[in-house]
Amino acid sequence: QVQLAESGGGLVQAGDSLRLTCAASKRKIESYTMAWFRRAPGQGREFVAVSRWKSDTTSYADSVKGRFIISRDNAENTVYLQMNSLKPEDTAVYYCAAKVPLGEIYRADNYPYWGQGTQVTVSS
Questions:
Q1: 86 and 11 in contact (C-beta within 8 Å)?
Q2: Cα–Cα dist 58/69, whole Å
Q3: What pLDDT does 55 receive?
Q4: Where does the pLDDT of residue 38 fall: very low under 50, low under 70, confident under 90, or very high at 90 and above?
Q5: Looking at residue 64, what DSSP letter applies?
Q6: CB within 8 A of 36, min separation 6: which ones?
Q7: Helix, strand, coil % (nearest 5) of the chain?
């Protein structure tokens, strides 16, 4: 099974940018739909962005559309989340997740493989 490890989080100011990295091992990500979720304090995991298997089309939560970009480098077995124009409400632990390319892609419950998460804190 694929193993995932996120990095790149940190403390930034509103309006800044960050790029999160999800490094995969054990399996090639080209066989998976890859997504980013986040969990703010006291809340459940929220869908952020997804990169679909093979077609590599992407979708975003309305709250991040136009500011965040998900991309994948299959050769490097890595997924990225470029986050621009960050807002305090983007503060959360960000998780990379993977699933086989069948079924619904926006619910956290449908993803069996997760990284440990990386903290992003945006100050106002």
A1: no
A2: 9
A3: 66
A4: very high
A5: T
A6: 20, 22, 48, 49, 50, 70, 79, 81, 94, 95, 96, 97
A7: 5, 50, 45
